[in-house]
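hey team, just a heads up i'm posting the complex here instead of the shared drive bc the drive is being weird again. everything in one block, sequence lines first with there labels, then the predicted structure for the whole assembly after. its two chains so it's a bit long, scroll down
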Amino acid sequence: MSEYLKHPKPIWAIAGGKGGTGKTFLSANLAIALSMERGDIVAVDADLGGPNLHTLLGVRENGRDLGDFLSNRVSRLEDIALPTSFPGLRLVRGSENMLFLANLNHYRKLKLIRQIKSLPARGVIIDLGTGSAYNTLDLFMTASPGILVITPEPTAIENAYLFLKSCALRVLKAYARYFGISDFDRTLSQWLERPSATLRNFMEILADGDGSAGQILTAALNNFKVYLVVNKARDKRDVHLGRSIIDVVRKYFLIDMDLLGVVPYDERIHWSLKKFSPFISEYPESEVSRAIRSMAERLSQESLPVHPEVSPSPEAER
Amino acid sequence: MIKKIEEMDFYDLLSLRIDASPKDVENAYLLAVTTYHQEGLASYGVLGDDDRGFMLDRVEEAFETLSDPEKKKAYDAIVLPRHPEFRQRAYFRRSTRRLEIEDASEDKRLWDKIRAVVKPSWIHGNGHGQSDNGGGRHREWLPEDFYYYGEYLKMVRQKRGLTREQIAERCGVSPARIESLEEESSLSRPHGKELLENLKLYAKGLGLDSENGRDSPFSDRIDE
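-- predicted structure starts here --
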């Protein structure tokens, strides 16, 4: 067994229910900040429908990508984790050529998840696509923890809740199947017929019927850890909004959510994109960059320590 | 076992710890009103108007009770002994029938709060900032990270009759920075190591280190 497998690494997956919340922006800049904080990070562009993490990382030349791995042209994910211009950061580039990638079959998805888990690195950051497709949910739940990005707008918040609800149901279904909770499907069908009912209502109904099933499934949700990032915050009300959302999620979704950080709105992000230059390296002293570094520091400290036996791969040292 | 929302006690309802200060109660109340207000974005798409109205009524009732010392005392006598946090952490001292936290000195609690909000991981970790009360209970003292430390530093400064300018001169941090630390503004305050450095200087300026008879919990982090 390799040292990397003996000492598992943190996997952070970044999602957002709606497009335009800044998932890829955060993934790129957080990956750079984490590589500076921790070293030997691999960023995986798993936005299977529209990958552009490479653009935000300033990687312009073409190379091997996720399509090569998923279509078996390359056997190991590690072999397509290519160096970037940032020391200690490698990139698994998303494929722009395979439209069917957005609908990965079960086998390919498991292969991808397994290889992400065994990547030789000190941390992996996954940039996910928009929406609540099963592939996106499963990759999000591979992470520890997942990071959900919202902007302070009703559409983004509504879709974020939908995303969390989809994740929660996926977790619950898996546990119900494993523990043989027979009432689950019937209760779920009844609950889905009441559009205004919250996930908490569902758990209450389930617990009323079978107390032990309620306990098992509540524990399953409580173990599902998610971080929230409020992006494009313009004032203190947007900071409070993040706290309010966390309160709602804890109460009505029973998910253990915490605020990872708030990224202020900055017009210059637009200009850094146009220059193909990551914001954090273009404006390192900006409030945005400070907020991202602060998040990276926290994620790194809260995750598994870098084991001294695990040396960076030669690729990462370049 | 999962509780119904209508069965939650006021502490759970406002996401407060049982040792919440009056200021904590007020902050939690304001946040809850924002959350469940008819125009509030946070509950949009999750709760209907009736549910929001119900929550607002309960939040008002909770605030009226917890912000009134007499009502709070009567309420605590009924609710706290049943509260899981109360039972697990054994704050209640049987011999005196008092809550242990009532005996703790204000400044000592202040340090624990600062530790908990600035670096929650210290409380659990490798000896840095280990709580005297043990068990890592302060990790969840406050519901949100980076939220209340400024308020407590401000409280100590005001207790000592110092203006922002006076403390700024004493600790070598600009008055504007002092203000952003006290306001806990995530948009203007420093982050990461710089935040710790500033807090360390501010706390030293207030003389908290010597009063507590131990090194600043920030020092070992800053020097890394």
